[in-house]
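Fold these two proteins, one after the other.
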Amino acid sequence: MVQYYKNIVSKILPFLYNRPLTLERYPDGIHKEGFYQKSASDYFPSFVKTEKIETEDGNINQVVCNTKRTLIYLVNQGTISFHIWNSKISMINKTNKVVFDLDPSENDFERVKKAAEILKEFLHQREIEPHLMTTGKNGLHVWYKIRRTKTFDEVREETKILAKKLEKEHPELLTTSVRKEKRKGKVFIDYLRNSYGQTSICPYSLRPNKSAGIATPISWSALKNLKSADFYNINNIKT
């Protein structure tokens, strides 16, 4: 795992740079209980950059990973996955990234692929050029950059409107229902990741599953032949 992150450092650091992190740590391996960590540990060395962030639970010092040294240190602490904010510490309340998480209610990846294609065309109609990424687990992320002119509240409301419109146009395939019992047979469009304090998996991050899946940016042309969200993993990724 450490060797993977050493090999991928030049690709993952630009996505981590100056963004508050939530660390997903499994110090005893994935067969033991892990935990999510937002606040930096007191014992973290001084070279690990932290930033005081205002949250609902008060101000907390969150880790910011801008260097290879920090990345490898965190991995050696049992951090398998890195979850990033949609904003940077320089303008913490102004998002510069929009993420739609497409999550299947059942083990039906073909429906997730169909949902991604529909979302791509939907955004193209609005002159938005989206990017695509496997999550390394079950679904896909469709995301795009925006200028830092709007708050999280404004962006979340805009993405909610887009998601609701998609749901209305494709009720047989898409849902915005947060309750899992209402998602049966449908793909959940999670727009709530565009809220203040929410995170999404960082590109090139490992996932804590048996396949050691990797959240992998891919081209839209590669989607057709993609077999699963964890198709790219620690055993076949090219670094």
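Now the second one:
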Amino acid sequence: MKKVSILIPVYNEINTLVKLLEKVENADFAGLEKEIILIDDYSVDGTREIIKNLEDKYKVLYHNVNMGKGAAIRTGLKHVEGDIVVIQDADLEYNPQEYDQILKLIIDDQADVVYGSRFINLDTNNTVIKINFLANKFLTLMANLLFGSSLTDMETCYKAFRSDFIKDIVIESNGFDFDPEITAKILKKKARFKEVPISYCGRTFLEGKKITWKDGFHAIFALIKYRFFC
């Protein structure tokens, strides 16, 4: 494997995007060539203007209306050229340097899909909002009960896939219900799946966090839908 495609969905991240891109540029990504794909989900805070100035440096895609993270990932997947696809949020909650250990499992043909888990080493992480931590643990437990799996962190941003594997999956979700949908479809396909511990420095809603309690209900619905009806 030679190239990794890094999908970065972006929506109103004017305060973090440039710093995040610097971190991605400086990260090794297991020595693979990087293809950075920015998908602007109709940002209105000045982020889009920053992205337009990066068109010569990265592959840049635009939505004409705000559609959600799942839709942005779906758009990005149509343009990937890498052997591995990874997802990177445009905030600073995750450390791109930690993608090395995730990618190596796929490079060494030990896995088709690898998640970076925030909850394996809790003492190294700052989850910020306890209710979010509890919600994530509940949704992960629900996924395990429905699919007979042993996940520790279904809602993690850090997900890596063999490109040929994820391109074979039809993604329907537009919003944050992408995470339960893709997890459900991975588990139903009996993929070679692994998790590795990662660090995490969560932000508050005042700092720009976008996922809310309503997204939790969408996730529950998605898990049930993709377990029994799709």
